[in-house]
Each structure stands twice: as C-alpha cells, then as structure tokens.
Amino acid sequence: MFFWYDPTYWLLIPGLLLAIYAQVRVSSTFSKWQQQMSSTGLTGAQIARQILDANGAGDVRIEPVAGKLTDHYDPRDGVLRLSSEVYGSRSIAALGVAAHEAGHAIQDAQDYAPMRIRATLVPVANIGSGAAVPLFMLGLIFSWQPLVQLGILCFALAVLFYLVTLPVEFNASSRAVAVLSSGYLPENEVRGVKAVLSAAALTYVAAALQALLQLLRLILIASANRRRD
C-alpha cells in the first residue's frame, strides 16, 4: 500500500483544495484592495510606525524587504520588514498588512504567550518536519515499529507548530483591525482591511489542515502495516 497504490492519499485532497482556494482568494482580495487608496494618505511604513510608537514598541525598526507579500516581523532582530507593495504604498491592502505585522511586534513587546510558545517550537518543528518522513519510511522498510512511531512523533511536533500559529495570526489581525478602527480609517476602508486579513488567515488554516490530514495519513499507514506484520 505504501509503495504502490495508497488509498490514504485521498485524505490529503480536502487540505489541498482549501490551500488552492486560499491562495486564489489572497491574491484576488489583495489585488482588489491594493488598487484602492486610503483616505489617510499614509503609507504602510508610516502607519506601522504610528501603531508601534503608540503601543509600546517604538524601538522596533521598519525596513523594506524584496519580494511579493514577504512582509514579516523578525523578533530576533526587532525588525518589521515590509515588502515593496506594502512599505511605500497608500493602498487599503498595504495598510492592513502593515498593521497586521505591527500586531506581531506588539505581541512580542507584550510577551504574548502563544507567540512565545511558537518561537520555542520553531527549532523542534524544523527538525521534526525534516526527519519525520525519512524515519517513518525506514521504519516501514525494516518493519521496526519504534522507528515508525518516532517518525509520527516528529511530524506531530510540526503539526503542533501549525496549530499554535493560528492564534498568533488571528490575534495579530484582531489587533490590526481594532487599532485601524479606532480613528485611523473610516468604516468602509476597515471593511477592506478585514477582507484582506481574513483571506490571509485562511492560508494558515489550510496549512494546519494539511498538516493534520498528513499526520492522520501516517497513523493509518502505520496501523495497516502493523496489522500485516
């Protein structure tokens, strides 16, 4: 079953379909609101600077970064990096993304627990995701159940990282919407921000679902292999 036809592959289809839909929705939603300029006249970098300064994260630097939608907050260096489409843009989409990333910096400044947990899991998840499949396959090849179980455990650690990421991202978006609604943007522009951030959140949900389904698949394969042995 593992080397030839594997019916458990069907388990991965819902996650794959959701991931494709999420990417299409992110691209279309961002493009729509990228074309609509905010009445504030502020750029993504400027609004992020104001949000950071007003929420106890004034020491965080803001830098441009190459690429499309490569925006992120780096807690190690205390730097918020915004892509060219966001850094100097006055679009509603850019302000939403910039405020979201500023939300991560504020999480860091306020010692937000899920963010700390996620940071702790990063090295473990990286090792786990890289080692899981080789360990699992070797365990099946040599019919050694402890190695199979170790592979599943390693992948479970990666899944845990995806799950912890969800509240971190949702909270950053909630912070962004709340602060932009508090006098920065009018209601119709906040609606655009919500649309952009909701679409982006769906990509994290899709990634978590894919990881969970893959974990379930490994467990089913291991169970079937154990029964044959």
List the helices and strands and how they pair.
Blueprint: H1 13-34, H2 44-54, E1 61-65, E2 72-74, E3 79-83, H3 84-87, H4 92-109, H5 113-141, H6 145-184, H7 187-228
Parallel strand pairs: 1-3
Antiparallel strand pairs: 2-3
Describe the protein's architecture and organization:
It is elongated and about 65 Å long. Helix 1 runs antiparallel to helix 7 (187-228), helix 5 runs antiparallel to helix 6 (145-184) and helix 6 packs antiparallel against helix 7. The chain contains seven helices and three strands; from the N terminus they run ααβββααααα. 72% of the residues lie in helices and 6% in strands. With 229 residues, it is mainly α. The model has no long low-confidence stretch (mean pLDDT 93).
Task: Give a concise summary.
By secondary structure, the protein is mainly α.
What oligomeric state do these chains adopt? single chain
Sheet having the most strands = 3 strands, mixed
Name the poorly predicted regions: none
| End-to-end gap | 13 Å
**Beta-strand content:** 5-15%
Structural class: mainly alpha
Number of strands: 3
User: Percent range for helical residues?
Assistant: over 70%
Order of helices and strands: HHEEEHHHHH
Mean pLDDT: 93
Shape type: elongated
Specify the number of helices.
7
Rg: 21 Å
Could you give the order of strands across the largest sheet? 1-3-2
List descriptors.
3 strands; 7 helices; three-stranded mixed β-sheet; 72% helix
